[in-house]
């Protein structure tokens, strides 16, 4: 019951009342330390009161709980050294990491906790010491891996075509080699090494991604932009395309160019994932994800309807014409592709003006140009401009959250020998087996003096204002005395604190 009340207090809108009641309940806790403490009992979602305060973005309660956990080591003038307890904050020994919970929540207020002490100092320590070097090395390794895969695709086994052409439009001169013919020469064996590296890399990607999907859940793992959801979909699809290409090569099945081309596009697009490690490029990847999975996905539904309708009309119009003179619409799939190019204004109207064109072509093409080029493309530009304006206000905040998510990901994937635990063991200071983060804080005495002056003058202004209200209450029945009383109270309030505010300005 006490633990339930603590969780309820974390969700209370009155932060001051919640903090006082929280302390009151903990004062009756018999097991204030150890696993039996009320603060360490999780709810049905596996969240302790401390983690719940972070997930809900309750910064007041979070700071209050952190103040209870800190230990002042020493103080010398304006310098103060504080030890902050990293229990439930550090993701070293946590199955449900506090940092991962914050970056995966949809509440923007929760991301503000990443700027508070000691979370900010802990993330900076992890990222600068281990996260950034490992991430840059991983980016370089992935680019070299993609170069290897690209070279294997460029020099894939092909042989000249020996069969006769079946159509005048047939332009194929090379075909795929059989498996027995693909690995004969020294160049083939060198390519085989690159292909083995590519397949091993695809298997490693699946082995690393699948456990996280089972642990977090597919909806949360693929749906969170900060966790890299779209890029996880891309890299898993890429690995599957590599395995499909391998099966088609081993079985000598024609058509390996289809999964191979998909894998090339997806693999190189996944390089943008590594831009999150750089402050100059990270916010732009967030912008691209927001636009692609926000505005562009909605716009594609409208674009598909328009293209389908006009492509069908163009195909029907040119269905009775000679395809040799009007090759852009000789069949229905080509009509769809040509209409798509027209929609994006990549090509001009693909009409042969040396022959007589149907009258309806001019009418339909005129309507298509008005709807597609003038209306819908400008609508897309306006939608993207609005999304850019909205995301620009929080892109730096989202980038910092991405850095936290990347740090937690690297800490989970790398061996313990490559990523030692951050902080100081409490045994060095007689604080038990818990780990602490040492933070040096500099206190500006002039700032606190100015704040004391400000509070004193505010109190004096409130007292003078109350006295003026009392005089107005006494003279409320005398109409002609209301205006002088107002000016009198204003002048009293102004003269009594004027000297104090001038002293404050000079001090500042």
TrEMBL record:
One of its GO terms (biological process) is calcium ion import across plasma membrane. Residues 135-393 form the Ion transport domain. GO terms for molecular function: calcium channel activity; metal ion binding. It is a multi-pass membrane protein. It comes from Bucco capensis. Keywords: ANK repeat, Membrane, Metal-binding, Phosphoprotein, Repeat, Transmembrane, Transmembrane helix. Pfam families: Ion_trans (PF00520). Its main location: membrane. The gene is Trpv5. This is TRPV5 protein. The chain crosses the membrane at residues 134-158, 192-210, 231-251, 257-275, 296-318, 359-381.
